[in-house]
Amino acid sequence: MNQRRKTVLAATALVVLSAGLWWGWFGWDTQRDIDPATGASSGPYEWWQICACIVSWAVIAWAGTELLEPAVVIFLMPAAFTASWILSSALTDDSGLWAIGAVLVAAGTLAANALFVGLLRLLFRKRNRSGARKDPALP
After folding, report:
1. pTM, whole model, 2 decimals?
2. Which of 14, 31, 97, 104 has the most CB atoms around its CB within 10 Å?
């Protein structure tokens, strides 16, 4: 398989997995929790969903940086995640506020992902300088 095909497959997998993060951890949970004593609502997401999404995101981003250029990972992951968020939110929101939420989701995931991928790049650049060899089969 040539290098271009590997890159396209890796980028496609990155997009599918990143979009899947939304659907797998959050997209199915739409019920808000109401405290019977105070009437206050919270949710719909639980702390474990957020933690699991962050860990999953980190693993996917790490794998992406091993196979693709960092800039590709930085932009594709938030774009796919945000697109999934938009799909689920725009269809259920009559107020139009989903557009503001989309900007916030896009900006937040882009900023956090850029920081994380930058840290990965620094870590692995340092590791590669210290004598650890990268697998020659990887780009």
Report:
1. 0.84
2. 14
Measured N-to-C along each axis, helices 3-22 and 70-90 cross at an angle, to the nearest 10 degrees, of: 40
Question: How many angstroms separate the CA atoms of 57 and 88, rounded?
Answer: 19
Number of Cβ within a 10 Å radius of residue 87: 13
Q: Which residue reads 């939110």 in tokens? A: 89
Q: What is the 3-state secondary structure (H, E, C) of 8-41?
A: HHHHHHHHHHHHHHHHHHHHCCCCCEECCCCCCE
Quote the CA–CA distance of 126 and 139 in Å, as a whole number.
18
Can you list the alpha helix ranges (DSSP code H) found in the chain? 3-22, 47-67, 70-90, 98-129
pLDDT in tens, 87-133: 999 988 889 899 999 999 999 999 999 999 999 999 887 666 655 54
Take residue 74 and report the two structure tokens written for it: 């930085």
Quote the mean pLDDT of the chain: 90
The CA-based angle 7-11-17, given to 5 degrees, is 145
Backbone region of residue 133 per phi and psi (left: phi > 0; alpha: psi in -120 to 50; beta: other values): beta
